[in-house]
Amino acid sequence: MAVRAVVAMIFAATVLHVYAGSASDAEVLAIVRKHCVTCHAAKPTHESFQEAPKTIILETVVDLKRHSATIYAQTVQTKAMPLGNQTNMSDDERATLGQWLKDLP
After folding, report:
1. What's the whole-model pTM score?
2. Alpha-carbon gap, residue 79 to 77, rounded angstroms
3. Of the candidates 46, 27, 48, which has an alpha carbon nearest to the alpha carbon of residue 99?
4. Of 14, 32, 49, 65, whose CB neighbour count within 10 A is largest?
5. Neighbours of 13 (CB within 10 A)
6. Burial of 74 (0-12, 13-18, 19+ CB in 10 A)
């Protein structure tokens, strides 16, 4: 019985890893819209910002590619963003975003 549980855990981890590596642009944009765009938009909706912090706008795939190094460092590596994790970005979302950024040409 224990062997089956271990096999199931390994299978689940493998599936999650493969899924993270195959994120579409639309999936990544959904994560960014959920966690980043309230501040990092041309017109932020977060009450603390009149304009995007450091003028980093993250509304399109082109924007994400332009700021990929910063996004990776701040959101995936150090988990500094979203600030104070106000939007409760999960580790799975960070992994998906990170893998998508690593896979960029």
Report:
1. 0.79
2. 6
3. 27
4. 32
5. 10
6. middle
Q: What is the DSSP letter of 75?
A: I
Nearest one of 93, 76, 86 to 27, comparing CA atoms: 93
Ranges of H-type helices in 36-105: 61-66, 68-71, 91-102
Number of H-type helices and E-type strands within the chain:
5, 0
Q: Using alpha carbons, select from 30, 39, 45 the residue that is nearest to residue 83.
A: 39
* 42-54 burial code (b ≥16 CB/10 A, e <16): eebebeeeeebee
> Are the C-beta atoms of residues 74 and 97 closer than 8 Å to each other?
no
CA distances, 21 to each of 17, 43, 50, 51, 56 (Å): 6, 31, 35, 32, 25
